[in-house]
Amino acid sequence: MSVAKPDASRITPCSFAPPSPLNTQYSSLPLQVLLYFNGLYLPVYWILTIALLIYKAQLLPYPPTAFPLEISGLVALGFLELARLFLGSRGNKTEEPLSVGVFLGLTVASAFGFLYYCIWQTYV
């Protein structure tokens, strides 16, 4: 009595099998969601901070060089944050370690920029 072998084209992989190293996915859905909402939050923060700086410049006596420096710093922070969000999203989607590493470095620089505008600016 011979036993028939199953047809290889009809065999489906078991969904309970452990993932192989070739199929491992390292991208993160929570990180992508946070990057998405940070992209929505950034323009609102930027516009409100510009408006607040202009309002404070009208009411308070700024030193001559402080106001232009704070505006240019906010523009630079906006571009830094855009680059950070782009590299973080691209690095997360493509699972590219260099983009994720630069994203983490820009996150530290961006955190200091936001700390400046929350704590250390001329008139808080």
Automatic annotation (TrEMBL):
Pfam families in the cross-refs: Transmemb_17 (PF09799)
GO terms (BP aspect): non-motile cilium assembly
Membrane topology: Multi-pass membrane protein
Transmembrane segment boundaries: 33-55, 67-86, 98-119
GO cellular component, one term: membrane
Location relative to the cell: Membrane
First-listed, main subcellular location of the protein, grouped into a coarse class: membrane
Keywords of this entry: Membrane, Transmembrane, Transmembrane helix
Protein name (Swiss-Prot/TrEMBL): Uncharacterized protein
InterPro entries per UniProt: Uncharacterised_TM-17
Residues in the signal sequence: none
UniProt keyword Transmembrane helix present: yes
